[in-house]
Amino acid sequence: MTTEQLNNGLIEVMREKIPAGMNLARVLMDLLCIGKEAVYRRLRGEVPFTLAEAAIVSGKLGISLDQLTGTGRKGNAVFDMNLVKYPDPVRTYYAMVDNYLQLFEGIGDVSAVEAGTAANVVPQVFTMNYETISRFRYMKWIYQSQEYEQPRTMDEVVIPDDLYRKQREYVSTMQRFGFTYYVLDSMLFTSLVNDISYFVSIGMVSPHEVDRLREELMALLDEMLSIANTGRFRSGNDVQIYISNINFQATYSYIEQKSYMLSLLRVFSLNPMTSRDEEVFRNLKAWIRSLKKFSILISHSGEMQRIQFFNKQREIIRSL
User: Fold this and answer.
1) Does the pLDDT at position 71 exceed 50?
2) Global confidence as pTM
């Protein structure tokens, strides 16, 4: 395969990958930090894209270079671990949340996005607006990471305002998607309460903090119940909530908008492992959708099951 063929193939795939209505030249100017004329020389084939430029574009637009060159092997897929690390834990945690938001770059019209999640933990879109719950999850992450000085108690844990703003930005972005559905493991609040109880048992969470966590978890349940009753986020966008009758081992998500496809697998507490591979996406989406067969829709239906589910979660939270 000649350089010209590779270059033309890359340009063709790029045109397919960018959202409708977006100008490819403008996208490349932003991604590659080069001028307008330099971009057009590449698009006209006068100058080929360098390997570094092709790597940047493939990473941002989800283009598989091995498939483009014909060297990809069936059954193989590339995953991005999205790992970040700074000497300061707050900066690292901030970067992890910011990485989530950067994954959504290039989507274009978020109102046309479909997002599906199978969650065995309470989804972050529901927790990140709550100060004490956020501090608990941050403390747990530090405790598990073993990379930073361990806090003696949760009272010592402080999250700066700019991190809260970044978390709220994440929640706002997720709630602007055109259609979202969640398949929730019925044990997700049990798992969270067990986590809190463990840190209480080792003296890291005080009775005062337990009271605040209990209060916020009740408020979170009220918010989730309101969403389930209306079938909409506060943004007005549609959302469906299913409760699964089977348990699953991890949290899986996909995001789709025309030519944009992203698969996410939750690892290491916060940051997701992601892939733009089409085969991975198709299989993950099919698996998440298949869980609906084992689940009960409690948004705009299943009123009795909805009441029973939320009453049970309140009992679990009261047990703290």
Assistant:
1) no
2) 0.75
Element (DSSP H or E) covering residue 191 = helix 188-201
Task: Decide: helix, strand or coil at residue 143.
Answer: helix
pLDDT-wise least confident of 66-80, 127-141, 160-174, 205-219: 66-80
Q: What is the DSSP letter of 269?
A: T
Q: How many CB atoms neighbour CB 124 within 10 A? A: 20
Find, among 31, 72, 70, the residue nearest to 50 by Cα: 31
Strands of the 179-185 sheet, one edge to the other? 272-275, 260-266, 252-257, 114-119, 179-185, 238-244, 295-297
d(CA 276, CA 21) in angstroms, rounded, equals: 21
- Using 50, 70 and 90 to split pLDDT, how confident is the model at 22? confident
240 phi and psi angles, rounded to 5 deg: -120, 140
E strands, the chain, are: 114-119, 179-185, 238-244, 252-257, 260-266, 272-275, 295-297
Strands (E), 19-175: 114-119
What distances in angstroms separate CA 250 from CA 18, 41, 47, 121, 258, one per listed residue? 30, 46, 46, 8, 27
Do 97 and 170 meet the contact criterion of CB atoms below 8 Å apart? yes
Task: Look at residue 72 in the predicted model and tell me its pLDDT.
Answer: 47
